[in-house]
Specification:
Number of helices: 28
Structural class: alpha/beta
Low-confidence stretches: none
Number of strands: 16
Largest sheet: 8 strands, parallel
Radius of gyration: 32 Å
Helix content: 55-70%
Distance between the termini: 44 Å
Shape: elongated
């Protein structure tokens, strides 16, 4: 290896400079990650209200109890006609077209109401609101006149409330799914869609004062949830929303986004600026909600513009989705443990700064809440204790500094990734260094231009290039190092010598993989990737291509070691031989098995496939998560790292097929280390800790696996000798 490095010293020097640049970026990023170590919890009002109804205590009692647990913020959705009609409020709202079908209502309705309908209703898209209290009539009337078009709002006051007729349009109509009318032989006769509702039913009207008072009386603060919709999203709407906050004494810490559009976004260009100025003046932080698949965020129209206008005054929010609420007594636990695990992982591993909390429910039960307050006390106390191990405390969430990776660092990392790629190309094809230098210069010019013109896209491409090329460089080390050891170590050497060589090969490959990991993370360590506003897309390529590179390189070296091949690079006759090779049935079987394992390997990466992890493995992961600072990756320490040592053993012992299989498994370990640092939302410290545990466990298990495999091989040889005799 010394001679190989010397021949290519210019490339290795440039790679070393790239690693230094990546280390500088890593240090700067870790400083940013260490600067904000608080997480806040916001309780959902509606779900807490539903839970209280099933318990022996009212909502005020529960809010005080949660406040005693440190949860002093309550998320309160603004009301709409839909929410009011579904609650116990004295309000009814119907499409006028449906009311006209109700002959009983028409016979009982006051003459003035029928006249109002006859004079103003021109189509089927209008909505009639019947308020049965003066307070509710005034609340709804004021909201529609301030937030809707007052010319389209017609009111008629009564002794007990009043009537409000709202002109709608075809754009407001909401239809059900297509229905089919069929004859007695189930043959379709006609298809149609029926209007079921109107968008008018969903317009936010404001927060009910009595709900705000309930929250504030319990010693909690209100975090309003305001939804805006296209066409109903002008400055009048926004100004009334903020005016109502002020009138009710609501001073939010967060503006949690989860609706269709940003308030005021439909106005002129200064609409976003108006909201940004309001947030800045009132010290309000934007909260962006993570998607259900734990990747990226819910992305309302205008969100990116708003975040940039506030200079990244934003934190990520994890909402307790229904499927997590049901994880009470899940996986065989006796209580809340799996729900706590979900919250813990969101905070520690995914840069979540706000938990939007919804109470626990019985497993697989859509309606029954857990109403034992002791369960909630113990759950939050346990979570707080676990977070303290990572230096995280409960408190007001603060946004990260808007860190951006500097140009020079991206360029140096791009040069290093390019050098690694050229070394991989040279390993396969007989190319002279002068041509590689020309390619390198052209690549530097291209990379510099790309970084200037499209920095985010360039960062992703550089990151993907580093992950693939450095993963392949680890393959070169593993094979070349093992081949050199094979020349000096006899095939019948003792286990101690082979184990020493195996551990050295493993650790050397891991050093290269770790260098590749920080080079991969470096170009995309900017705040937009840490918040998952931009997503890195090259994970699958980074895992698959080094495996293909290993297969090709192993075959070339295998024919060189055990065949008649004179060179270790690819030649024309190698291609001809491969095209004319007669494939045997057993080869197809092996390829099929490897393909199945490859599919499982790739499908289990991320959260977007339907291939679930087994319950046993999840419980094992949870156990390691609880007893260790960071959970090591199972495939690394249990399979991949020991496989590298088994690869060295098999190569020394001339076990060709075993060497190929173990080598493939070992490469997965190197790519997995790089993959760990591709998750930019995960703190770097956690990635280093996770990898360190994997190395220690992997070496220990690797020694054990080699010893056991050696015993098995000896038994097979004895059995074979006896059988042949």
């Amino acid at each position: 290896m010394k001679a190989y490095i010397k021949r290519n010293r210019i490339f290795f020097i440039l790679i070393a400079l790239a690693v230094i640049a990546a280390l500088v970026v890593t240090a700067q990023r870790m400083i940013v990650e260490k600067s904000d170590r608080t997480v806040d919890i916001v309780l959902d009002y509606k779900e807490a209200e539903l839970m209280a109804e099933q318990s022996n205590h009212d909502l005020s009692w529960w809010l005080k109890e949660f406040a005693g647990m440190g949860i002093t913020k309550v998320g309160l959705n603004e009301e709409s006609l839909k929410s009011l009609t579904e609650s116990e409020e004295p309000v009814k709202a119907e499409l006028v077209s449906e009311l006209r079908k109700d002959t009983y209502w028409l016979s009982q309705a006051p003459e003035e109401v029928l006249e109002m309908i006859d004079e103003n209703v021109k189509d089927d898209f209008d909505v009639m609101v019947i308020a049965e209290s003066e307070e509710m009539f005034s609340f709804i009337k004021r909201a529609f006149e301030k937030r809707y078009d007052p010319k389209k709002v017609h009111t008629l006051k009564s002794d007990t409330g009043g009537y409000i007729l709202i002109d709608g349009s075809v754009e407001d109509a909401l239809y059900g799914s297509t229905e089919v009318i069929a004859n007695s032989e189930s043959v379709g006769f006609e298809q149609f869609q029926q209007m079921k509702s109107s968008r008018i039913m969903y317009l936010n009207l404001g927060m009910l004062p009595e709900k705000v008072k309930t929250i504030q009386a319990a010693g909690c603060s209100v975090e309003p949830r305001t939804s805006a919709y296209e066409d109903w999203n002008n400055k009048r709407f926004f100004n009334d929303v903020t005016a109502q906050y002020k009138k009710l004494g609501v001073e939010p810490d967060y503006w949690i986004m989860a609706n269709k559009v940003i308030p005021a976004y439909d106005e002129e260009d200064d609409g976003i600026r108006m909201l940004a100025d309001y947030l800045d003046a009132n010290g309000i932080t934007i909260g962006i909600v993570e998607n259900t698949n734990q990747r990226a965020n819910i992305d309302p129209d205008g969100l990116e513009d708003l975040i940039q206008a506030t200079d990244y005054n934003v934190v990520r929010v994890f909402t307790v989705w229904p499927y997590i609420q049901f994880r009470y007594k899940y996986y065989g636990y006796d209580s809340y443990q799996e729900i706590e695990n979900s919250l813990f992982r969101a905070i520690v591993e995914r840069n979540i700064k706000i938990i939007y909390y919804k109470p626990m429910k019985e497993k697989d039960d859509n309606y029954t809440y857990i109403t034992d307050v002791k369960e909630y006390r113990e759950s939050f106390a346990s979570l707080e204790k676990r977070l303290a191990r990572h230096g995280i405390s409960i408190g007001k969430a603060s946004p990260s500094k808007p860190y951006q990776v500097p140009f020079w660092a991206k360029l140096l990392i791009a040069i290093g990734a390019g050098c690694a790629a050229l070394l991989c190309l040279k390993q396969i094809l007989p190319i002279r260094n002068k041509w590689l230098y020309i390619l390198l210069v052209l690549g530097i010019v291209g990379a510099a231009g790309a970084i200037k013109i499209a920095p985010n896209l360039a960062g992703q491409l550089i990151s993907m290039g580093a992950s693939i090329s450095m993963g392949c460089l680890a393959v070169i080390w593993m094979i070349r190092r093992t081949v050199e050891d094979k020349k000096t170590v006899r095939s019948d050497s003792g286990l101690a010598i082979i184990l020493t060589k195996g551990i050295r090969t493993l650790l050397g490959g891991l050093v290269i993989a770790l260098a590749g990991a920080i080079m991969t993370a470096g170009p995309i360590s900017s705040i937009n990737f840490m918040l998952e506003l931009d997503i890195y897309r090259g994970v699958k390529f980074a895992q698959l291509l080094p495996l293909a590179f290993f297969a090709l390189m192993f075959c070339l070296y295998a024919f060189w070691l055990w065949g008649n091949k004179k060179k270790t690079t690819l030649e024309i006759q190698d291609v001809k031989w491969a095209l004319n090779y007669n494939i045997k049935v057993w080869v197809i079987g092996v390829v099929g098995i490897l393909g199945a394992f490859g599919y499982v390997y790739l499908a289990r990466t991320g959260h977007e496939t339907g291939l679930d992890v087994s319950t046993m493995e999840l419980l094992a992961r949870n156990f390691l998560e609880e007893i260790l600072y960071a959970r090591p990756r199972t495939k690394e320490f249990l399979i991949a790292f020991p496989a590298v040592m088994l690869f060295v053993y098999s190569m020394v012992r001339n076990q060709k097929i075993c060497a190929f299989i173990f080598g493939l498994a070992g490469v997965i370990g190197f790519t997995s280390v790089i993959n760990t640092f591709m998750h930019i939302r995960t703190p770097m410290e956690l990635g280093f800790s996770r990898t360190a545990y994997s190395i220690v466990f992997g070496v220990v298990l690797g020694v054990l696996y080699v010893v056991v495999f050696d015993v098995i091989c000896r038994l097979f040889r004895k059995w074979g000798a006896r059988y042949n005799a």
